[in-house]
Model the fold of this input.
Amino acid sequence: MQITFERATAADAEALVNVQIAAFHEDARLYPGVEIGGPPGYDSVESTLQKIAEDDFYKIVYEEQIIGGIVVFDEGQGHFHLDLIYLAPDYHGRGIGTRAMEFIERSYPATKWSLDTPGYATRNHHFYEKFGYVKVGEEARDGIILIAYEK
Done:
């Protein structure tokens, strides 16, 4: 499976939003009691355009189709924050997420990585822990509990 990771452009924003909506709405199907939704701006082309302009935003491409995205923040002094990593539900379980994590860790000279993920998203917890991330805290934000991880 030929997967590429490319910098996102403004022309990609609508496709990225469509994949974000599908990816984050999948949580409502996977986790009983979770409402349909996602992180702030996940369903907004305007918000996505802003992230493309200001952050390190990558599209995950398979057969010339955008199937996912990655957003990385540079926090300075070798600390990078994985703000978003998402994949269209039809592509889950194919090792693409693993390749995406390997791509970002290879692409950034980090001495520290951080990220957060919803407390209910136990599948995400196992995924990040597989890469050596360790839970360092939790906080309530936007009506959900977010688990903070670092590596």
Observations:
- Helices lie at 13-30, 45-54, 96-107, 122-130.
- The first strand starts at residue 3 and ends at 7.
